[in-house]
Design brief:
two-stranded antiparallel sheet, 14% strand, alpha+beta, 4-stranded mixed beta sheet, 145 residues
């Protein structure tokens, strides 16, 4: 009998800390600045990355203290992923919440953390730093979705 992977049998709330953390595919799309239309609540992505993001590795350089250093950083939790309009449709947290399969390039499926980059899903080579960006309104992009 083949055992099903934890993300297929557990809810987000049932996962251990290690399981939860391993769901992150390393795309860093959640680290992009987003703008929200106040009238429609529609979320727009920019190609501007948080100042704490290592642009090559797509990892937070100060992960454990990110919320203190960047107060509007959204710490992923079962509660914060309920509002999915800010998460890309490829996000594993969103996919699991919606009962969908992870993509082939997700490291938990492929066994290789590089496949998210090889598949062109991550922000590596596609984002700019806050220092380079200028006005966010001029940096809107569609590719995160």
């Amino acid at each position: 009998m083949v055992e099903r992977p934890f993300w297929e049998i557990k809810s987000l709330k049932e996962m251990t800390r290690n399981e939860w953390e391993s769901l992150c595919d390393g795309c860093a799309r959640c680290c992009l600045h987003k703008l929200e239309d106040e009238d429609t609540d529609e979320v727009f992505y920019t190609d501007v990355a948080c100042r704490l993001l290592d642009m090559d590795e797509c990892k937070c350089t100060r992960y454990k203290e990110r919320n203190r250093l960047v107060p509007d950083c959204v710490v992923m939790s079962p509660e914060t992923v309920r509002r999915d309009d800010w998460l890309p449709s490829t996000c594993a947290y969103r996919l699991v919440r919606e009962g969908k399969d992870l993509y082939w390039w997700h490291p938990l499926v492929s066994g290789d953390p590089q496949t998210v980059h090889e598949a062109g899903i991550s922000v590596a080579g596609r984002a700019v730093t806050e220092r380079e960006a200028g006005q966010l309104e001029h940096r809107l992009v569609a590719w995160p979705e």
